[in-house]
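User: Let's play a game. I give you a shape written as C-alpha cells, and you guess the letters that built it. Ready? Here's round one.
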C-alpha cells in the first residue's frame, strides 16, 4: 500500500509516496514465544489529566521485542481509538531502503480501509513517538493532521529518526532488545455531515423531483392543517388500489410517511396519480393554481363519503357585490360568491389590511358610468363588495406577479408588503362584513403558514414557514426542515429593500446600495383563533385505515431491509455466476457477440471474508451443482473489449477468501471491487474406465474453446453448442469431429467451416481458420470462441440472406427496429420495420413505400423524433439530407427508434424547389373565411401569392385584388409590397393573412388620405391595454371626422348599430395609454400618411369594447405559454 510522508526531518510538508507495497502482518519477533505487546488503550486529553472526557482521543503503545533481529517491515496489531480501527507500520531502515537510506519510517494506517464503505473518510490529528526509555525527554516525536480516505489510507513520516541512532544500545531507545513506539490520536468529529430533520424538528421534508418545490411547499402546508390531514386519512380506499393511480391512496401514503417515518418522503407516487409525466416534474407551476386544482379534485373525491364537505368547511368563505343608488331608494345585491382562497393586490398596498380595504373599496358610478337600474333608469350609485362569511382556514394569495402592459411583459412585484401575526377582520366595527353576517363569530386569525417565492418572474424557488404548534416556526425547504424565528418567517418576507445593507467597501460608514429583496411571501394561511383547537386536532395512527397502515409498514420494513443491505454492502461482494445453461439460453436470443450478459445471470451476495471453499458449498445449494462437479473460471476483459473465461481456479484457492480470489491473491489498497464474474464449468467428458463425468486434466498445452453453431436457413440462427478442450499442437482438422458432436450434427453431415469470433467493436471481426493450421498457429487462447457452420457451395450460399457467420453478425450489429408513424397522427401505433442502421436514405424510403403499398418512394417525407419528449421535430428532413438510417434517427448522442412520415402529392425533390405558405384569408368584414396552402416557386413574389389565392376563391364575389399582411398577436406588423420575394416570408412564427384590397375605392380615397391600422382592445382599471380580435385597415379621408368614419367601420365589421354605439374609439401607441377621440375629431391628423409601416411606435386607432371571442394563450412567467395544471 502506498504510504505518504507528511513532514521531512526539518518540519516542512513534503508528500513522498513510498515505492514498495507493505504486507500487513503481525509484528512478531523471530522468537515466536515473544509476541508484540499491546499497551492498554487509554483516553487522554491535552493535559493527560482528564482521561474520560473525549471518547474521540486515545493512545496506543506498541512494544516490539528483539527489535534489531526483526524483519525490515513491521506491522502492529489492530487497535481502536475514536471508534475507528488503526495499526502502525514501521520500516527499520526506511520505506525506501537503499545505499542512501539512513532513516527509520513510521506511519499510521486506517486498518479497515479494505472493508470500509465506498467514499469513507475520517480526519485525525496524531503524534508519533519513538520512546527513549532512559530519558523520556529525549524521545523522538512528530505531529500531523491528515484526512484518511481510500486513496490516502496511511500517513506518517519517512524520516522519523536516524535508524543507527535508534538501534544504538547506548542511546536508550532499544533496551534489552525492546523498542517502544507510541501514537496519540485525536479524531475530529464530523459536524453537519448530515442534517437530521426529524431529530432536529420532529418533522421531515419532501424530495424535489426537479422543479416541484412549489408543490412541496403547498403539501407541507396542507399536511399541517391537521383536520385536513385527518380527512384525507378517512377517505375510503381499497386494499387492491394502486397508489400511482389513486390520488386518495397516494396522498394517504405520503401523509403517513411524513408523520411516522424519519427520512424525507418522495412525491413520485402522488404526481403519477395526478397523471403527470416526467416533463411535469421539471416544469414549475403557480402554487395557487395547484392549490385550487388539487382541492377541487379532492373535494370531488370526498363526495358521498363521511368526509364530504371537509374542504368547504375548512377553506370556504363567501362575499357578495352590491350596488346602491345615491339619489333614490334602490339597492341591488348579487348572489353570494364562494372562495377557497382570496387574491389580494400587492401593488399599491402596504399591508394585508390595506389589501382588504382595497378589496372592499366602494366605487362611485357617475357620469358615463351611471348604473342602469331596472326601475329608475340611469342613476348615480355606489358599488362594492362585502363578506358574508370568513372560513376557519383563510388562504390569502398575494398577487406578486402581474402583467406590465407598458413593457408588454410579466413582472414580479417585490414591494414591501407587511402581514401581521394576528389578523383582525372584525376591526372597524366589522366594516368588511355584510350587515346580515353572523357577528357572533370572532374573526381574529393567527398566522399559520407563510409560503415564500424566492426569485424572479422567469423562475425561482418556493419554500414555506409553518408553525404546527402555533409557537415554534419551522422552515420547510424541500427535503430539509429547520427551526426559524419569527423575524425570519415574517419580517424577512415582507419584501421591499434591504433595511440593513452592508457598508460599501472603501466608504467608511456609508451604506452600500440598497438591494431589492427577491424572496417574499406569496401565499399566507391564517387559522381563526376560536377554531384553532378543532383545525389543529390530534391525528394518530387510529385515523389510518388498517390496510393502508399495513401496506405502508410493509413498505417501511422493505425500505429498512434495503437500507441495511446498502450499509453493509461494503462487506459483501456480488459474485455473478454464468453457467452453460445460461449460455444456452442467452446466445442467439439476447446475446450474439461474446458469451453472456451478466445482468441476466444468477448473482450471489457473498461476504468478502468468506473462504472460497465455503462459497463453493453456497453455490452448490443455490445452483444445484454438487461441489465435486464444479470447476471455476475467472473472466478477463481483453484489450479489444471482449470478455472471456481465461483463468481456472486451483484447489489452493479454496483456502483464500472470496476477496483474495477476486484480487488474484494480491493485496492492494486500490478501490475494493464490488463484483466478481465467474464461469462454472461442469464435467462434459466421461472417464473411459468408470464412465462417469469427469473434468479433463489441464496442462500448459490445454486450450478452453467455447463453441457456437450457425445455421443460415430462414434468415440465420445462432446457438451455443458447448465447450471443448484442445491441445495447442493439434490442427484444426483434428478437432472437427468433436465440434460436430457438440453441434449435434450427424456423421454424414457436410464438412464444417470454422470461424474465430474475435470482436464486434468498432467493427465485426471474424477470421476463418484453416483446417491444416495448428491451434497455436491460429493464435487461439483460453476462452476463445469458435463459430462453426456447415460448408456451402456457391449455389447454396446465394439462397441464403446471410450465408456465413460474418454476414450474420454484421446484420445483427446494425439491425434496428424502427416505428414509422403518420406525421398528422403521431400517436398512432404505426408500422414497424427491422432495418440496418447503415441503410441509405433511398433504401429506407423504398422499404417503407413497399410496406405501405406506395408506388413512388419519393412521395415520402420524413420527420425526426425528439426521443426525450417523444414528439416530432418542427422541421422535416430534406431529401437525401442525411446519408444513412442512423443519421435519420440521430438526436445528439441518442438514437431514436421512431420516424414520422408524410405522403406528399408530388415527389419530394420537386416539392423542395417550391415554397408552401399557409395563408389565412379574411373577407371584407375582417372575419376569417378559410385557410389556404399556396405553393409556388421560391422566386415568386407576394403579388404571385395574392393572384394564386384569388384564383382559388369562388368566382362569385371574388375580389379584384388582394393584399398580403403579416399579423402577430392581434396587430398588423407588415403589409407586404407586391414585389417582395416569398422565400423571405416566415409563416411558422407569424400569421400570413390575405384580404381584399379595396381601400383606394370610395369617397375616402384621395391624395390626403391615410391608411390607418385599427385594432380591438380593452383596458383595465390601471389603463393597461390588451389587444384582441382581428386587426384591420381603414382608408381615412383627409378631413374625415370620427362621426363620419364610425358608420363605415360599423358596416365593415358587420356589428349591430346599437352594439357599435357602445364602442369607444381612441388613438394609442404601444408605449402610451388610450387617448379617447370625440366625434368631431379629424381622424387622419392623428396618424401618419403612410401605406406601409410597422406598428412599432406608430399610433393606431383602437376600438374599445368587451372581448367576447376566444382568448389567445397568455405567456406565463416561466418563459413559455401557460400550460394549465391538470390532475387526472
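Assistant: Ready! My guess for every position:
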Amino acid at each position: 500500500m502506498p504510504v505518504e510522508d507528511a513532514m521531512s526531518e526539518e518540519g516542512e510538508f513534503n508528500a513522498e509516496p513510498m515505492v514498495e507495497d507493505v504486507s500487513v502482518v503481525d509484528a512478531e519477533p523471530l522468537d515466536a514465544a515473544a509476541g508484540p505487546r499491546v499497551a492498554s488503550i487509554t483516553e487522554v486529553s491535552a493535559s493527560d489529566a482528564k482521561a474520560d472526557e473525549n471518547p474521540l482521543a486515545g493512545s496506543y503503545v506498541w512494544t516490539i521485542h528483539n527489535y534489531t533481529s526483526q524483519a525490515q517491515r513491521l506491522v502492529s496489531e489492530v487497535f481502536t481509538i475514536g471508534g475507528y480501527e488503526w495499526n502502525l507500520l514501521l520500516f527499520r531502515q526506511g520505506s525506501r531502503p537503499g545505499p542512501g537510506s539512513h532513516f527509520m519510517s513510521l506511519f499510521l494506517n486506517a486498518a479497515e480501509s479494505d472493508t470500509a464503505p465506498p467514499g469513507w473518510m475520517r480526519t485525525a490529528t496524531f503524534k508519533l513517538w519513538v520512546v527513549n526509555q532512559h530519558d523520556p525527554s529525549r524521545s523522538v516525536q512528530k505531529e500531523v493532521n491528515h484526512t484518511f480516505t481510500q486513496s490516502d489510507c496511511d500517513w506518517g513520516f519517512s524520516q522519523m529518526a536516524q535508524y543507527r541512532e535508534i538501534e544504538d544500545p547506548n542511546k536508550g531507545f532499544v533496551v534489552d532488545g525492546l523498542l517502544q513506539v507510541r501514537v496519540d490520536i485525536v479524531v475530529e468529529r464530523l459536524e453537519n455531515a448530515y442534517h437530521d430533520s426529524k431529530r432536529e424538528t420532529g418533522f421531515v421534508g419532501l424530495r424535489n423531483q426537479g422543479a416541484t418545490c412549489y408543490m412541496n411547499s403547498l403539501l407541507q402546508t396542507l399536511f399541517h392543517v391537521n383536520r385536513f390531514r385527518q380527512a384525507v386519512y378517512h377517505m375510503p380506499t381499497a386494499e387492491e388500489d394502486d397508489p400511482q393511480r389513486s390520488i386518495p391512496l397516494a396522498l394517504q401514503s405520503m401523509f403517513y410517511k411524513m408523520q411516522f417515518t424519519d427520512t424525507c418522503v418522495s412525491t413520485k407516487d402522488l404526481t403519477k396519480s395526478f397523471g403527470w409525466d416526467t416533463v411535469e416534474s421539471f416544469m414549475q407551476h403557480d402554487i395557487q393554481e395547484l392549490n385550487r386544482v388539487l382541492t377541487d379534485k379532492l373535494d370531488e373525491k370526498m363526495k358521498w363519503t363521511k368526509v364530504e364537505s371537509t374542504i368547504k368547511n375548512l377553506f370556504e368563505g363567501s362575499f357578495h357585490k352590491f350596488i346602491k343608488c345615491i339619489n333614490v331608494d334602490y339597492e341591488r345585491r348579487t348572489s353570494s360568491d364562494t372562495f377557497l382562497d382570496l387574491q389580494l393586490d400587492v401593488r399599491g398596498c402596504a399591508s394585508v389590511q390595506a389589501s382588504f380595504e382595497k378589496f372592499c373599496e366602494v366605487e362611485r358610478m357617475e357620469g358615463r358610468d351611471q348604473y342602469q337600474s331596472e326601475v329608475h333608469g340611469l342613476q348615480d350609485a355606489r358599488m362594492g363588495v362585502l363578506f358574508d362569511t370568513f372560513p376557519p382556514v383563510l388562504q390569502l394569495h398575494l398577487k406578486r406577479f402581474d402583467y406590465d402592459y407598458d413593457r408588454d411583459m410579466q413582472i414580479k412585484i417585490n414591494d414591501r408588503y407587511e402581514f401581521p401575526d394576528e389578523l383582525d377582520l372584525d376591526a372597524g366595527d366589522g366594516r368588511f362584513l355584510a350587515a346580515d353576517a353572523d357577528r357572533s363569530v370572532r374573526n381574529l386569525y393567527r398566522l399559520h403558514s407563510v409560503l415564500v417565492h424566492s426569485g424572479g418572474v422567469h423562475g425561482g424557488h418556493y419554500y414555506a414557514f409553518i408553525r404546527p404548534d402555533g409557537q415554534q416556526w419551522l422552515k420547510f425547504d424541500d427535503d430539509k426542515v429547520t427551526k426559524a424565528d419569527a423575524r425570519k418567517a415574517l419580517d424577512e418576507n415582507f419584501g421591499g429593500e434591504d433595511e440593513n445593507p452592508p457598508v460599501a467597501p472603501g466608504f467608511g460608514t456609508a451604506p452600500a446600495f440598497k438591494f431589492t429583496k427577491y424572496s417574499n411571501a406569496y401565499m399566507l394561511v391564517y387559522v381563526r383563533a376560536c377554531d384553532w383547537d378543532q383545525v389543529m386536532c390530534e391525528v394518530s395512527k387510529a385515523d389510518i385505515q388498517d390496510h393502508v397502515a399495513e401496506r405502508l409498514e410493509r413498505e417501511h420494513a422493505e425500505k429498512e431491509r434495503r437500507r441495511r443491505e446498502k450499509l453493509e454492502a461494503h462487506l459483501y461482494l456480488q459474485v455473478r455466476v454464468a453457467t452453460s445453461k445460461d449460455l444456452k439460453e442467452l446466445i442467439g436470443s439476447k446475446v450474439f457477440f461474446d458469451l453472456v450478459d451478466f445482468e441476466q445471470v444468477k448473482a450471489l451476495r457473498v461476504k468478502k471474508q468468506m473462504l472460497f471453499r465455503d462459497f463453493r458449498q453456497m453455490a452448490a445449494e443455490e445452483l444445484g451443482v454438487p461441489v465435486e462437479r464444479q470447476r471455476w473460471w475467472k473472466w478477463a476483459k481483453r484489450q479489444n473489449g471482449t470478455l472471456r473465461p481465461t483463468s481456472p481456479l486451483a484447489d489452493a484457492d479454496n483456502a483464500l477468501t472470496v476477496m483474495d480470489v477476486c484480487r488474484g491473491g494480491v493485496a492492494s489498497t486500490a478501490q475494493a471491487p464490488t463484483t466478481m464474474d465467474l464461469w462454472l464449468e461442469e464435467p462434459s467428458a466421461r472417464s473411459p474406465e468408470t464412465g462417469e463425468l469427469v473434468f479433463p486434466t489441464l496442462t500448459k498445452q490445454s486450450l478452453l474453446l467455447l463453441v457456437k453453431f450457425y445455421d443460415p436457413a430462414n434468415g440465420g440462427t445462432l446457438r451455443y453448442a458447448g465447450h471443448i478442450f484442445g491441445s495447442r499442437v493439434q490442427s484444426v482438422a483434428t478437432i472437427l469431429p468433436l465440434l460436430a458432436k457438440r453441434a449435434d450434427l450427424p456423421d454424414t453431415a457436410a464438412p464444417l467451416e470454422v470461424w474465430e469470433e474475435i470482436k464486434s467493436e468498432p467493427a465485426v471481426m471474424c477470421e476463418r481458420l484453416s483446417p491444416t493450421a495448428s491451434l497455436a498457429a491460429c493464435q487461439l487462447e483460453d476462452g476463445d470462441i469458435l463459430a462453426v457452420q456447415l460448408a456451402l457451395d456457391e449455389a447454396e450460399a446465394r439462397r441464403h440472406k446471410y450465408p456465413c457467420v460474418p454476414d450474420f453478425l454484421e446484420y445483427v450489429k446494425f439491425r434496428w427496429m424502427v416505428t414509422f408513424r403518420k406525421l398528422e397522427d403521431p400517436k398512432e401505433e404505426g408500422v414497424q420495420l427491422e432495418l440496418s442502421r447503415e441503410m441509405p436514405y433511398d433504401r429506407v424510403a423504398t422499404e417503407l413505400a413497399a410496406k405501405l403499398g406506395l408506388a413512388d418512394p419519393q412521395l415520402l417525407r420524413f420527420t425526426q423524433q425528439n426521443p426525450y419528449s417523444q414528439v416530432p421535430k418542427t422541421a422535416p428532413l430534406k431529401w437525401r439530407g442525411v446519408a444513412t438510417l442512423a443519421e435519420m434517427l440521430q438526436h445528439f448522442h441518442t438514437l431514436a427508434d421512431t420516424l414520422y412520415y408524410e405522403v406528399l402529392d408530388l415527389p419530394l425533390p420537386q416539392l423542395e424547389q417550391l415554397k408552401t405558405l399557409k395563408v389565412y384569408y379574411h373577407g371584407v368584414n375582417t372575419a376569417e373565411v378559410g385557410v389556404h396552402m399556396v405553393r409556388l416557386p421560391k422566386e415568386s413574389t407576394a403579388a404571385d401569392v395574392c393572384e394564386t389565392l384569388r384564383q382559388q376563391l369562388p368566382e362569385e364575389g371574388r375580389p379584384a385584388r388582394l393584399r398580403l399582411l403579416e399579423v402577430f398577436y392581434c396587430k398588423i406588423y407588415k403589409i407586404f409590397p407586391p414585389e417582395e420575394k416569398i422565400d423571405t416570408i416566415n409563416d411558422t412564427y407569424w400569421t400570413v393573412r390575405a384580404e381584399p384590397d379595396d381601400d383606394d375605392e370610395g369617397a375616402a380615397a384621395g391624395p390626403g388620405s391615410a391608411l390607418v391600422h385599427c385594432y380591438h382592445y380593452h383596458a383595465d382599471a390601471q389603463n393597461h391595454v390588451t389587444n384582441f380580435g382581428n386587426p384591420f385597415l381603414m382608408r381615412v379621408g383627409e378631413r374625415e371626422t370620427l362621426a363620419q368614419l364610425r358608420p363605415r367601420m360599423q358596416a365593415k365589421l358587420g356589428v349591430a348599430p346599437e352594439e357599435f354605439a357602445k364602442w369607444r374609439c381612441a388613438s394609442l401607441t404601444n408605449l402610451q395609454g388610450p387617448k379617447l377621440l370625440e366625434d368631431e375629431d379629424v381622424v387622419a391628423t392623428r396618424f401618419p400618411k403612410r401605406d406601409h409601416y410597422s406598428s412599432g411606435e406608430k399610433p393606431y386607432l383602437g376600438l374599445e369594447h368587451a372581448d367576447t371571442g376566444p382568448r389567445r394563450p397568455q405567456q406565463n412567467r416561466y418563459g413559455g405559454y401557460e400550460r394549465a395544471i391538470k390532475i387526472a
